[in-house]
Every structure is written in structure tokens, then in C-alpha cells.
Write a structure and sequence with these properties.
The structure is a homodimer. Chain A is mainly alpha-helical. In chain A, strands 1-2 form a two-stranded antiparallel ribbon. The first copy, chain A, binds a DNA duplex (30 and 30 nucleotides) through α3.
DNA sequence: CGCAATCATCATATCAGCATGCCTAATTCG
DNA sequence: CGAATTAGGCATGCTGATATGATGATTGCG
């Protein structure tokens, strides 16, 4: 469903979402929280930064932080960063080459329903919905 | 979504569905139709046979055939053969270890909705729906 | 300034899935 | 029976994802 790298990325963003508004969190801290290899995580954090999902700050007290609010980042946004350049939906189930829209393979309709359905679910799911806080409404008041 | 091996398996089963009721199809024929490596495909066909999805016959004129009708085999049935022993649904998004049902991780509900949704779609999709024939109703009459 | 913290980058090792080839056993046709 | 045909299984190399380690570049702070 998601590559291991993409999972690390989602988990890292969730950690940063929980620190949203506070000081940046260093790669080392995130790695130790997640139990993930530090330098490997560094690469994924770099990719997320380049995509504009995170911001980075060097030097003492530096680290990573969300570039936007937790509810404005979807799981699909993160998955896209580590996805194949050729989208899975284009490749069809019965043929590796992309289906010609005029003459799609006999599995095309069903298969795109499945893959695009999962993709749509990930697009509807925001990081704010995953971190156990009510980011979607108000940060302070929870009855 | 599906491993390459699982895709080969689905394609092979679709080929066999199109020959359903006729003579068995040899591994070599299937491999040449699919453009897949013969010996590698052989392993997947063997696995499908052991799982009871296919039947095999040796000797001249032998080969593989569906053990049941095309509409009785789902894509999920085939995917299961090559899936991890530990189901993807059990592992959660935020933690590799399975979530305790009493205290699931904060992403548990959303994530299981996504993964189980995709899985359910594959379970609802029969091979007969993928091979461009109207197996679901009648074999002979198509207006 | 000079040092320490931290991001950013490169180079390499490890591992699983994928692919290929060859060998053996079983089965069927002539 | 013997040759042809195919299933079943083993050994090996390839490739990309994953993981590890070392090094340079940038920034804040005393």
C-alpha cells in the first residue's frame, strides 16, 4: 500500500504535527521517537522539505517543522513524494504499458476504480486526522 | 498495490479464464502470451495450483486450467497467495506492531478504512469481470 | 571569531523481489 | 518401452529499496 519510506514520512509528519507551533524538531529527535534509522530518515525529510511540506532550519535549535497546518496536508500529498514518476493508475492490471483511452484493456474500468478509490481515501485523510488531536476545529478547547 | 508476481498471477488467471472449458494451457504458452519469464511464472502457477485456484495436468497436451468458474475467483483470492503472512491491515500506519484493539493508535480507524476498503474492492472484483467476456450471465449469447 | 549543533550530501553495504537457467521427476503419446 | 512434453524444484545473478557511515555546509551562540 505504502512503501516503508512513505510510512516513515507519514509518521515523521505526524510527530511534527504534534509539535506544530512550537520549536523545530531535529532529525535525530524524530528518528529516536520513531525508532527509524537517522540518516535514512534524513533523506525523506529532505524530500518533504523540497516538496514544500516541511521547512528546515540549520544550526543549533534548528530542525524541521510543518510548512502548513496539519489539516492542510493529506496522506496522499506525502505518498506522492515517494511514488513512482509514472502513476500506478496509468499502468493497468493486464498490461504494463498505459492503456489507450480509446481501447482500454478489459480490466481497465474495474482496476482504476480500485486504485483511484484508495488514492481518493488517502487524499481525503489529513495528517490532522491521524494525530489524535482536534486540529480540524480548534487547538485549545476540547470538551 | 500488487506485487509484480501477483500481477503476473492475475494475468495468467485471466488467460486461463478465456480458455475456460477448453483444453489446458501450458506454462510456456501463458508465458509467451503475457511476455513474462517462463520459469518465474511457473513458480506462481505452482502456488496457485497448491492453493486450489488452478488444476494442473502433466504430459503432452497438459497444462493449467481454472479449478472453478471465472466468476468464482476474486482478485483478492489471488493477491492473498502472494501476500505477507502478516496481513497489511494488522500493521498500522503509525506503528509496525499490531495495534491493541483496546488502545489503537490515533490513525487506526482512518487507516483501516483505507486498507480494508481497497481489499474489499479486490474481493468484490471477480476474474470474470476482468476478461472482457460476460461470464457472469451467459457464455454464449451476447447481443 | 571559534565551536557546537544541525541540515544536506555522498558513498557504500545490506536485503528482498525479480529474473534466468538448468536439472529431475512425472506423465502421456506413438 | 522410449521419446516427447511438462510440472516441480534448485542455484545463481540482477536490480531497486532500505539502511549505515562518513563528510561538507550553514547557522546560532558564547
Amino acid at each position: 500500500m505504502l512503501s516503508r519510506t512513505a510510512k516513515y514520512a507519514v509518521r515523521a509528519v505526524v510527530v511534527l504535527a504534534r509539535h506544530y507551533g512550537k520549536r523545530p524538531v531535529s532529525a535525530g529527535e524524530i528518528a529516536s521517537i520513531l525508532g527509524a534509522p537517522r540518516n535514512y530518515l534524513s533523506k525523506t525529510l529532505l524530500a518533504l522539505t523540497r516538496r514544500g511540506i516541511l521547512t528546515s532550519a540549520r544550526g543549533p535549535g534548528g530542525g524541521y517543522a510543518l510548512a502548513v497546518a496539519p489539516h492542510a496536508i493529506s496522506v496522499a500529498d506525502i505518498a506522492d513524494v515517494f511514488a513512482d514518476p509514472m502513476p500506478e493508475a496509468a499502468r493497468c492490471l493486464l498490461d504494463d504499458s498505459p492503456c489507450d483511452p480509446k481501447h482500454p484493456c478489459s480490466a481497465h474500468r474495474r482496476w482504476t476504480e480500485i486504485t483511484l478509490g484508495a488514492r481518493a481515501s488517502m487524499r481525503r485523510t489529513a495528517i490532522g486526522n491521524l494525530c489524535g488531536e482536534t486540529w480540524t476545529t480548534s487547538v485549545v478547547g476540547r470538551p
